[in-house]
Amino acid sequence: MAGETTITVIGNLTNDPELRFTPVSGEFGNTEGTPVANFTIASTPRTFDAQSREWKDGETLFLRSTIWREAAEHVAASLIKGSRVVASGRLKPRTYETKMGEKRTVIEFEIDEIGLSLRYTAATATGTPESRPVSEEAPTPDEVPVQEKAPRIGWRDRLKAQQEAAEAGADGSR
Questions:
Q1: Are strands 61-68 and 18-21 parallel, antiparallel or unpaired?
Q2: What is the Cα–Cα distance from 15 to 129, expressed in whole angstroms?
Q3: Which residue stretches of the chain have pLDDT < 50?
Q4: Angle CA(142)–CA(147)–CA(153) in degrees, nearest 5?
């Protein structure tokens, strides 16, 4: 909805995402319910204590999280327990009644966007054939070179490549 405040949470999944489907409504010829994935993100703030010269962990925040539709299926297929993620969404209160008749309210995180954090790991993006745009000039799978592992380029390698390119440009202009 427009005007709602969104938040971004960075943390680790405490378990594998659980993919379920809502009950079938039968409207518009639906044969299957809407996919929904549920999982918990744990986020622990860290601060540096200058006196002891150590990093200190703060209190861990556990956020029960929900994502819907096609994104839910992608989350269930892509993420596992321990995955470090960056998630953006809204906090939503949910009220329920216990078996004893007490009313309780919990705050849940309804996610709009989620992805792997690349701070401590590398990943290769892949997509489903139906999510890629179709082009007449697109190479066939046999023509596309297979790359086993994504190259890891650090800032020193980029700087060296820029310097070599500048030197090559200077040599070629004489």
A1: unpaired
A2: 29
A3: 150, 174
A4: 150
Spatial CB neighbours of 91, under 8 Å, sequence gap ≥ 6? 7, 107, 108, 109, 110
Please tell me the predicted confidence (pLDDT) of residue 146: 54
What residues contact residue 48 under an 8 Å CB cut-off, 6+ apart? Answer: 54, 55, 56
The pTM of this model reads 0.63
Tokens for 149, please give them: 């592992």
Tokens 């309804």 -> residue: 110
Residue 44: which of 56, 55, 60, 65 has the closest Cα? 60
Q: Return d(Cα 135, Cα 50) in angstroms, integer.
A: 57
For residue 133, what is the DSSP state?
P
Give the burial string for 31-42 (b: 16+ CB within 10 Å, else e): eeeebbbbbbbe
Beta-bridge partner residues of 108: 92
Q: How many residues can be counted in the chain?
A: 174
Residue 104: its pLDDT value, please?
92
Per 3-state DSSP, what percentage of the chain is helix, strand, and coil (rounded to 5)?
A: 20, 35, 45
How far is the C-alpha of 116 from the C-alpha of 111, rounded, in Å?
14
